[in-house]
Amino acid sequence: MPSRRALRSSSISLFQRGARGRRFKSLPAGAAALALRGIPAGLAFAGIAIVPTTFAADAPNAVAATAAASKKPYTVPAGALGAALSDFASQAGVGVQIDTRLVEGVRTPGLNGTYTVSEGFAALLSGTNLEASESSAGVFLVRQRPASDNGVPEGAVLPTVKVSARNAPINPYGPTVGYVASTTTTAMKTDTPILETPQSVSVITREQMTQQDAQTLNAAVRYTAGVTPETRGGTATRYDLLTIRGFTADTYWNGLKLLQNGQYAVPQLDPYLMERIEVLKGPVSVLYGQAAAGGVLDQESKLPSREPLHDVGIEFGNYGHKQATFDFSGPFDQDGRYLYRLTALARSEDGQINTTRNERIAIAPSFTWRPDKDTSLTLLGLFQRDPRSTSYGSVPPEGSALFNPYGKLPIDFYDGDTGFERFSRTQESIGYQFAHNFNPDWTVRSNARYFHISQDYASVYSNGLESDFRTLDRGAISSQEQLNTFEIDNQLQGKFSTGPVHHTLLTGFDYQHIGSSWNMGFGAAPTLDILNPDYQQPIGPLDTALTRVRLNQYGLYAQDQMRYGPVILTLSGREDWTNTTTTNASDNSQIQQSARAFTKRAGLTYVFDNGIAPYVSYTESFSPQTGTDAGGKPFDPERAHQYEVGVKFQPNNYDALLTIAWFDLTRNNLLTPDANNPAFQAETGEARSRGVEVEAKASLSDSLNVTASYTYLDTKYIKDNSGLEGKYFAAVPQNQASAWAYYTQRRGPLAGLSAGAGVRYTGQTYSYDNSYKLSSFLLVDATLRYDLGRALPQLKGTEVYVNAQNLLNKHYVASCIYTTWCYFGYGRQVFAGANYHW
């Protein structure tokens, strides 16, 4: 499905590659064209000139002319006109030149019959004011009919049209103008249009993150259906604590999982380094291996660009917030074979929790080499240093969610000890993305990454109030951790037909390795008088134990996306093997476990000509579990499965995507106390989440972007021996809703002024044991931006802004996830800054 996104520049961004991976030098922007080969139907593109797949520029003219004049059968699915024209040209072995402003938002019923090339073009263009004529041997030019034919007076000025700009599919992680992304690689590992994906997926674009000034992953997904962000409120800065459809989800980076050891060394990347975030909802083990049931949040890096980019910024705010950024990119050579990008950030601020601070330095270099038209290699690096981070602590229910005779606790209440508290994390990574096209139909890809975390953590945490309502019991914890991970994902993708059925076949092998160690200790800590706290009490040394873990996972997977006219059937299967060795360094004792799992997915989508696409799907996941039951039997992996039915709608006449989905998601084999032997656990637990999600994203013009969502969740423990059976999940609201709009004034005396505003509603949630409810809350966000270059030409490229999150400074309790732990939500955050772009 082509994207219909307005460029905000007078020039047209030109592709380097066709959808089947052939690279060409870009044509002049004034020509509004780009050379591509054989783009298949349904792929987004902009301003293109398609070179013949069979008859290249050096082919004999006579051969090309013969091919164009002969008749043969063609099958072109209904859909976007631009994609249909490119598909037809690919089948015919001819080229087509087209300015996509002419076909923006136009659809066609497709083609099924025997035609000459000219007749085929004429049939596809029937009912429009366009015609196709052979401008040279084997190359057809699509243009407006003369004024006498289309009713447009000669010399008349045509209205402004939007130009769609998409990166080539060999690099589908590129920028998206506006809020509406057309394709996703996360859901299918192929550049599949979202409209044709039989599972819910939401994309948060760079433009949306910038306009909302999202500085954490939680902040970036606040307006996304199905996501409950900041489940630990204002302490959610250190880790990306959120749920999807009521369950935890895995974070990915450029399609590879951010692996962790299950302790406190958890990867966290700064959103400023990202181009967009894709949220895939529900189990996805069929393509990714062991996975959390909630889904995947894939963070996609800013990648090197052919167009030069230079951007620097500074920002200040309350809580002593200070931030500086820069983002540079462009080619090293005129041909664009060597590209670079260098993105960096430095941030310092006080945490919302009293006495705490956030500090971060991050730099992400990347380099792309394109040695020939069919090959691309991108190297990606990362260094991110977090010397300090806000508290990971909590507040007791009494004084936050429940009555306390001494009154409410302040939202900056600190339960720790300043002399003992510490947190330091260093993350380093190097990886690559490689792609090579053997021919227009077959592509091989390989992505790999090494990731290292070094972390030192110590904290004093609360264990609940005593009966006097003012004495807080506390404990202490410390952990020094090292985490090293390596991943590689090798893929082979092919496109072919069996009769009238068109296939996109994906096969792959991936490998994940974790080597980690942690020296963790627990102990007692002095109590704290919440009315007269002493944060400098002596805390004795903790008893520590060193543990080492080695994990390996191997996976083989295959997927076939079969298209028959408007019907798309997707079948996927995967086999995984995992083995884990856990070593207690004190006595060198080891526990070895292995697991094997087969997972599958099936989806069916029907794409109507008007952009409506109903679908149904079934998908599974698994996650290995450590330990043994009372009989010494190792636990089987946790299993999850999901049924989903939905409808997606991508209108023809404006740039928008509307989705509605109903789902039933169940987790099995959960660990719960053994009913017959409570000293052990049994894998008999079960939990379920059912619900409805509605989401709309629209870039209604180059001035107005809108996103809105609603989520209903019914989450319960179905089987449990700890007293939770039949109860609702803690911190998961039944109802959530959000809406955000951002408008830029393009003309008149206020030209260059932008304003955005949004509301976020979170319904009532339950405490851990459902003994009480937490009140619902409504938060308001707003922003103002101004392009100074509109007022003073010498300041061209300079923008100033102010952004407020929780503008009304609503005080609320975000969640109570355990019997003694509750969390205040973020108070008002105000940021003001300036960016200079050239």
Automatic annotation (TrEMBL):
InterPro entries: Beta-barrel_TonB, Beta-barrel_TonB_sf, Plug_dom, Plug_dom_sf, Secretin/TonB_short_N, TonB-dep_rcpt-like, TonB_sidphr_rcpt. SUPFAM superfamilies: Porins. SMART domains: STN. It is a multi-pass membrane protein. Residues 94-145 form the Secretin/TonB short N-terminal domain. Its main location: membrane. The keyword Signal applies. Gene3D superfamilies: 3.55.50.30, TonB-dependent receptor, beta-barrel domain (2.40.170.20), TonB-dependent receptor, plug domain (2.170.130.10). Pfam families: Plug, STN, TonB_dep_Rec_b-barrel. Keywords: Cell outer membrane, Ion transport, Iron, Iron transport, Membrane, Receptor, Signal, TonB box, Transmembrane, Transmembrane beta strand, Transport. It is found in: Cell outer membrane. Belongs to the TonB-dependent receptor family. This is TonB-dependent siderophore receptor. It comes from Paraburkholderia edwinii.
